[in-house]
Structure formats: structure tokens, C-alpha cells
Amino acid sequence: MPIATVNPATGETLKTYDALGEEEIERRLATAEATFDTYRTTPYTERKRLLHRAADLLEADAQDIGRTMTVEMGKPVKQARAEAAKCAKAMRWYADHAEELLADEEPAKADVEDSGASRVLVRYRPLGPVLAVMPWNFPLWQVIRFAAPALMAGNVGLLKHASNVPQTALYLEDLFRRAGYPEGCFQTLLVGSGAIEDILRDPRIKAATLTGSEPAGRAVASVAGDEIKKTVLELGGSDPFVVMPSADIEQAARTAVTARVQNNGQSCIAAKRFIVHTDVFDAFAERFTENMKALTVGDPLDEGTDVGPVATEQGRDDLVELVDDAVESGATVLCGGELPDGDGWYYPPTVLADITPEMRIHHEETFGPVATLYRAADLDEAVAIANDSPFGLSSNVWTRDEAETDRFVRDLEAGGVFFNGMTASHPAYPFGGTKRSGYGRELSGHGIREFCNITTVWHGA
């Protein structure tokens, strides 16, 4: 894929960039290593000041960078501005909490004495330069949720962003520069995916984090494993949205629409499979379908647009193939399902019912505004359908029954279980998945410690 801004609302190529050459990549790696040697000892007070300054700048830039994101990947502009605000919030959260999250820990006195020590500490020390391979769907948020904790921990970052959001990638480097960070603390590498392996194998890179597709995760993890380097992976998701008889059906149906079509349906934690108890299936399906039909699809720069285009032509083609395969195999189209005429890579909000395991859409992730409906006879079947997926990122459950709540928490194979609301990420809570959705955690104290050398400091008696 060329490094270029291609407007998905029109298909027009607006700006192209040359990939960095080997000499410039080498210079940036050397700069990162040299900067880390001094930045790692920067006091928390200074790290906090710098990150707060970056958050202030991002908030001031929200209108402009929001428009840039919309033009590059098609998200509704009001959602783009909200993404910028969310990033500023996370930056401030880590600026204010990092020191306490990484404070020295002292084991129990009895264990210290039992080990023959006079004192024992567990200290969190930074690893060094970390490579971040990031996707286009949340081009600010995915980066900031890595960068904010990494920088507060004393690491430095090198960003290989998706090739279709180069302007956002360059903005991020400039943001940290304007905030006053030393050169080399955060650098954007405009390179193609073919350059990732050599960069990751470079001994100056100490770890890597990737958010993206399963194939991309496999590629990065295999190289990092060969080099024995730490990785955190957040990959695909096909999150279940389970509705039980005790749920508020009206509220569940309204929330289900947002949970499915946020970011034009291109979110790993978007609800994708709607598993509804048979007693309330018809009522939910009717309301949900009506709400999906009522969405406004159009120019993402228009403030009234609910759903914009799919970010890439290939992404839309993949979506068309999944829907067509399902329909040919017997799925019922409750709304949408037909490719519209005109420019841009639009696809209508679509609801499919009568899904069977033989259909590709049953096991593959739908990255666009397409929902699948399942009827469950009881709680056991709801759990079975929910877990019948290679992914395990998050999940949504609508129930007021405490016994059902306990059962879903116990049995759902996912990194999160959200009751009576939609999955959302927050800086205070760990984020990540299981199965083919990846491993490791971002955000919270768990996230900031992922790229730390957890060091035991033992003093003899």
C-alpha cells in the first residue's frame, strides 16, 4: 500500500509521501537510543509537565486534527473531535497517575525476613525504545494509549502508522515536539510494512506493540519471538451483544446501534454478533432494525452524518464478500445489504438474521456497519454462541438477573464483560483480549507496566 492520503468519501488521492530510506531510519534509531539514555532519568514532575502540555495542545488542535482524520479514514467528524478529546483525557490521566502506578513496592515483612533480606523492593524501570505498529481506524487514540504510558514510564517511542493516515502520523510526532519533548522521544517512521521486520530486529528496539489484524499480529509476534523481545498485541474482535429477557429492550436496541456502527462499524470492540433470547428476539430485532434503517449515511464532514464510508476500497470489498456469502448460504437480510451507487467506499447499515456456522461471517470479523442476529433458546445456548468465535476481545450483556450476571462473567471468553451498556475503553481500566484477539493489556496500571523491567532489589541483612 502506498503511503498516501486517499479520501474514502470520494476515492481521490490527496497527498502522497516517500518512504524513509535506510540512512534516515538509521538516524532515527540512533536518536531514539541516545535520547532514551537521558530521558529515562527524567523526574516524574518533568514527564508530567510535558504530557499535560501535549494534552493542552491536542485539545486546541481538535477541530483541525479531527478534520484531518475524517479526510484520511472517513469517520464522522464529530466522532473525530471526540477521539481527540478522549486522547487528551488519557494523557492527563497518565500524567497524574504514573508516579503512583510505578512506585516501588515492598513485599510483606514476613516474606522479606524469610528470604534473609533486610529490605526488598520491586522497582519498575523503563525498557528503552519501543516500536508501535498502529492501525488507521482510531488513528489518534490507538497511538496515544501506547504513547502516554510509555513516555510516562521513561521509554521512548517509534511509530509505524498505517500507510493511509500519514498526515495524522506526522501530526503526532509534531505534537510531542511542540510540547517540548526532547528530540527522539517520539518519532514517526513513514515506512511500508516491509520495513518492519528489520526495524524490529534492530537491537536498539527493546519491545513492540501492535494493534491491527491477526496476520499483522502473527508477523510481528513471530519476529519478536525470534529476537526474544516483549510484545503486546490487540488484534481483531467479533464481540457478542447478548440480550436476555430481563433486559430493557428499548434501551438495549438503541445502544446496540451505536455499539455496532461507531466509527462506521470499524472498531475491534464494536458489538458485531447480537445474540438474543428467543423470548425477546422478535421485539429486539424489530426495534434494532428500525434504528439501523434510520441512520444517516453520507459525507463524514457533515455534522449530521451518522455513518460515513468504509476507510479503504479493499475493506469495503471484503465486507461485500462476507455479506454476499451469507446471503447465498441462506441468511435473511432485514435491512441494507446492497452496494450503493456513487463515489466513495460507502456501505449501508445492514442487519442479517438466520446465520449458520457454515457462513464465513459466523467466524470472520465484519469491519463495517454490518450486524448479525442470533436466536438463543436459553442462557446456555447464548454462552455457547458467544464463545463460538476465534476472537475474545470484549463482550456486552443485557440482563438484570444476578445469577445470569455471575454466569456470564464466569463463562464468557473475553477480555471484558460490560453489563447493560456498550464496551468502551477508559484509561483507568485494563484493555485487551484473549484467544486470537491478542495478549497483554493496554491502559490502567497493567498497561503502563507492560513495557517496564520489573526489577527485584534485594538487600542483605
TrEMBL record:
CDD domains: ALDH_SSADH1_GabD1. The keyword Oxidoreductase applies. InterPro entries: Ald_DH/histidinol_DH, Ald_DH_C, Ald_DH_CS_CYS, Ald_DH_N, Aldehyde_DH_dom, ALDH_GabD1-like, GABD/Sad-like. Pfam families: Aldedh. Residues 3-457 form the Aldehyde dehydrogenase domain. It comes from the Bacteria. Belongs to the aldehyde dehydrogenase family. It comes from Streptomyces apricus. GO terms for molecular function: aldehyde dehydrogenase [NAD(P)+] activity; succinate-semialdehyde dehydrogenase (NAD+) activity. SUPFAM superfamilies: ALDH-like. The keyword Metal-binding does not apply. This is NADP-dependent succinic semialdehyde dehydrogenase. PROSITE patterns: ALDEHYDE_DEHYDR_CYS (PS00070). Keywords: NADP, Oxidoreductase. Signal peptide: none annotated.
